[in-house]
Amino acid sequence: MNTSPLESAGRLDKWLWAVRIFKTRSLACAACRAGSVAVNDLPAKPARDVRPGETIKVQLGLVQRTLKVVDVPRSRVGAKLGAHFCNDLTPPEEFAKGRQLPVQQLLAREKGSGRPTKRDRRLLDTIFG
Fold first, then answer.
1. Is 5 among the domain residues?
2. Dihedral sign computed on CA atoms, order 91, 92, 95, 99
3. What whole-number distance in Å separates Cα of residue 46 and Cα of residue 90?
4. Domain presence at residue 4
5. How many whole angstroms separate alpha carbon 80 and alpha carbon 96?
6. Segment 40-57, tens digit of pLDDT
7. Which among 34, 32, 63 is positioned nearest to 47, based on CA atoms?
Protein backbone atom coordinates (compact mmCIF):
# COMPACT_ATOMS: atom_id res chain seq x y z
CA MET A 1 0.00 0.00 0.00
CA ASN A 2 2.87 2.38 0.57
CA THR A 3 3.84 4.16 -2.60
CA SER A 4 6.47 6.72 -3.50
CA PRO A 5 5.59 10.41 -2.97
CA LEU A 6 5.16 10.91 -6.71
CA GLU A 7 2.61 8.09 -6.97
CA SER A 8 0.73 8.97 -3.76
CA ALA A 9 -1.50 11.53 -5.47
CA GLY A 10 -4.65 10.74 -7.41
CA ARG A 11 -7.68 12.50 -8.83
CA LEU A 12 -10.42 13.25 -6.31
CA ASP A 13 -13.23 11.77 -8.41
CA LYS A 14 -11.26 8.56 -9.00
CA TRP A 15 -10.44 8.28 -5.29
CA LEU A 16 -14.09 8.73 -4.26
CA TRP A 17 -15.10 6.05 -6.77
CA ALA A 18 -12.20 3.70 -5.94
CA VAL A 19 -12.94 3.62 -2.19
CA ARG A 20 -16.65 3.16 -2.98
CA ILE A 21 -18.08 6.42 -1.66
CA PHE A 22 -19.89 6.77 -5.01
CA LYS A 23 -21.19 3.96 -7.21
CA THR A 24 -19.83 5.46 -10.45
CA ARG A 25 -17.08 7.89 -11.29
CA SER A 26 -19.54 10.14 -13.12
CA LEU A 27 -21.58 10.48 -9.88
CA ALA A 28 -18.38 11.46 -8.05
CA CYS A 29 -17.64 14.07 -10.76
CA ALA A 30 -21.16 15.46 -10.55
CA ALA A 31 -20.95 15.75 -6.76
CA CYS A 32 -17.66 17.65 -7.03
CA ARG A 33 -19.07 20.01 -9.64
CA ALA A 34 -22.20 20.59 -7.53
CA GLY A 35 -20.09 21.66 -4.55
CA SER A 36 -20.98 18.63 -2.42
CA VAL A 37 -17.32 17.67 -1.92
CA ALA A 38 -14.75 19.69 0.02
CA VAL A 39 -11.08 18.92 0.65
CA ASN A 40 -9.64 20.55 3.77
CA ASP A 41 -12.85 22.65 4.03
CA LEU A 42 -12.41 24.10 0.50
CA PRO A 43 -14.71 23.21 -2.42
CA ALA A 44 -12.91 20.84 -4.76
CA LYS A 45 -13.03 20.09 -8.47
CA PRO A 46 -13.01 16.48 -9.74
CA ALA A 47 -9.44 16.68 -11.10
CA ARG A 48 -7.92 17.93 -7.84
CA ASP A 49 -5.09 15.77 -6.54
CA VAL A 50 -5.74 13.90 -3.30
CA ARG A 51 -2.85 13.08 -0.98
CA PRO A 52 -2.64 11.06 2.23
CA GLY A 53 -3.46 13.09 5.33
CA GLU A 54 -6.10 15.30 3.69
CA THR A 55 -9.65 15.52 5.03
CA ILE A 56 -12.54 15.13 2.59
CA LYS A 57 -16.14 16.08 3.40
CA VAL A 58 -18.85 14.62 1.17
CA GLN A 59 -22.54 15.56 1.34
CA LEU A 60 -24.55 12.40 0.61
CA GLY A 61 -28.22 13.30 0.88
CA LEU A 62 -28.82 14.39 4.46
CA VAL A 63 -25.54 12.93 5.77
CA GLN A 64 -22.21 14.74 5.55
CA ARG A 65 -19.42 12.15 5.66
CA THR A 66 -15.96 13.16 6.83
CA LEU A 67 -13.09 11.03 5.56
CA LYS A 68 -9.34 11.18 6.09
CA VAL A 69 -7.21 9.93 3.20
CA VAL A 70 -4.79 7.17 4.27
CA ASP A 71 -3.59 6.10 0.84
CA VAL A 72 -4.53 6.31 -2.84
CA PRO A 73 -5.43 2.97 -4.47
CA ARG A 74 -4.18 2.15 -7.96
CA SER A 75 -7.64 1.01 -9.04
CA ARG A 76 -11.08 0.36 -7.54
CA VAL A 77 -10.95 -1.81 -4.44
CA GLY A 78 -13.45 -4.16 -2.85
CA ALA A 79 -15.90 -2.91 -0.27
CA LYS A 80 -13.98 -4.52 2.58
CA LEU A 81 -10.66 -3.05 1.41
CA GLY A 82 -12.05 0.48 1.08
CA ALA A 83 -11.47 1.04 4.80
CA HIS A 84 -7.71 0.56 4.31
CA PHE A 85 -7.54 3.69 2.17
CA CYS A 86 -9.58 6.07 4.34
CA ASN A 87 -10.55 6.66 7.95
CA ASP A 88 -14.22 7.49 8.47
CA LEU A 89 -14.37 10.44 10.90
CA THR A 90 -18.11 10.98 10.46
CA PRO A 91 -19.78 11.59 13.83
CA PRO A 92 -22.60 9.19 14.74
CA GLU A 93 -25.07 12.11 14.84
CA GLU A 94 -24.75 12.48 11.05
CA PHE A 95 -25.84 8.89 10.48
CA ALA A 96 -28.65 9.39 12.99
CA LYS A 97 -29.97 12.30 10.88
CA GLY A 98 -30.32 9.96 7.92
CA ARG A 99 -32.19 7.39 10.00
CA GLN A 100 -34.48 9.92 11.70
CA LEU A 101 -35.86 11.45 8.55
CA PRO A 102 -36.32 8.73 5.93
CA VAL A 103 -36.44 9.74 2.29
CA GLN A 104 -40.03 8.55 1.96
CA GLN A 105 -41.17 11.23 4.43
CA LEU A 106 -39.41 13.94 2.45
CA LEU A 107 -40.85 12.73 -0.83
CA ALA A 108 -44.37 12.20 0.53
CA ARG A 109 -47.05 14.32 -1.11
CA GLU A 110 -50.59 14.99 -0.05
CA LYS A 111 -53.15 12.70 -1.60
CA GLY A 112 -54.74 14.28 -4.66
CA SER A 113 -52.00 16.90 -5.14
CA GLY A 114 -50.97 15.37 -8.47
CA ARG A 115 -47.54 15.14 -9.98
CA PRO A 116 -44.69 17.32 -8.70
CA THR A 117 -44.36 20.61 -10.53
CA LYS A 118 -41.12 21.85 -12.01
CA ARG A 119 -40.67 24.03 -8.92
CA ASP A 120 -41.20 21.00 -6.65
CA ARG A 121 -38.60 18.97 -8.57
CA ARG A 122 -36.06 21.79 -8.32
CA LEU A 123 -36.67 21.99 -4.58
CA LEU A 124 -36.08 18.25 -4.26
CA ASP A 125 -32.88 18.59 -6.31
CA THR A 126 -31.55 21.22 -3.89
CA ILE A 127 -32.38 19.03 -0.90
CA PHE A 128 -30.77 15.88 -2.26
CA GLY A 129 -27.96 17.61 -4.13
1. no
2. negative
3. 22
4. no
5. 23
6. 999 999 999 999 999 999
7. 32
